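Worked example 3 (structure in, sequence out).
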C-alpha cells in the first residue's frame, strides 16, 4: 500500500529509515545512496500514506531506525521474497498478476488521471536518467508544491486500481 500511495521503489521502501521521514512536514527525504539514480529525492506524503506511517510510528521499535519491520526485525529483500506472489495467489488475482513494480506504474497513472503536473510526477518517481527539458533542469519545485500536488491526487478513477504492465 505504501508504494501504491507514494510511487516509491521496493528498495527505497526496504531501506526507509525514520530519520528520512518528517511526519510534521509530510515529507520523505532520501539521500543519494538510497535512490536508484544516486540523487537526493523528496517524496511528499498523501494523507493515505501518512495513515500508514502514523500507525507504524505508534508501533515503532526504539532498537532500529528502519520504518518497515516484520516481527520486530528489519525487513530485507529475502524476507519479502515470497510475500507478493503469496498475496496475489490468496487474492485469487487473475493472470497476468501484477508485479510489485506495477505499483509505481499505478501511481504514475493515478497522477496523470488526477492532472498532476508531469514534471512533479517525474520528480517524485525519481526518473532522473532520462533527457530533461530546460524547464525541468532549471525549474525549482518547492516542498509546498509537492504537498499541494499530492493532496490533489485521487485513487478512484472507475477502473482497475493496479495497472499491470503489458496489459491492454
Amino acid at each position: 500500500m505504501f508504494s501504491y500511495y507514494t510511487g516509491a521503489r521496493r528498495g527505497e521502501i526496504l531501506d526507509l529509515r525514520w530519520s528520512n521521514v518528517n511526519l510534521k512536514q509530510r515529507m520523505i527525504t532520501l539521500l543519494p545512496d538510497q535512490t536508484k539514480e544516486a540523487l537526493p529525492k523528496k517524496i511528499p506524503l498523501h494523507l493515505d500514506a501518512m495513515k500508514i506511517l502514523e500507525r507504524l510510528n505508534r508501533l515503532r521499535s526504539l532498537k532500529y531506525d528502519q520504518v518497515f519491520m516484520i516481527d520486530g526485525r528489519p525487513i530485507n529483500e529475502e524476507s519479502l521474497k515470497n510475500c507478493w506472489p503469496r498475496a496475489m495467489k490468496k487474492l485469487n488475482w487473475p493472470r497476468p498478476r501484477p508485479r510489485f513494480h506495477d505499483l509505481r506504474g499505478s501511481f504514475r497513472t493515478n497522477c496523470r488521471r488526477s492532472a498532476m503536473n508531469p514534471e512533479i510526477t517525474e520528480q517524485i518517481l525519481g526518473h532522473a536518467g532520462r533527457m530533461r527539458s530546460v524547464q525541468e533542469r532549471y525549474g525549482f519545485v518547492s516542498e509546498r508544491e509537492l504537498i499541494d500536488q499530492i493532496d490533489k491526487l485521487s485513487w478512484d478513477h472507475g477502473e482497475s486500481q493496479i495497472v499491470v504492465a503489458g496489459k491492454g
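Notes: Strands lie at 21-22, 27-30, 41-44, 69-70, 73-74. The chain has one domain: 2-151.
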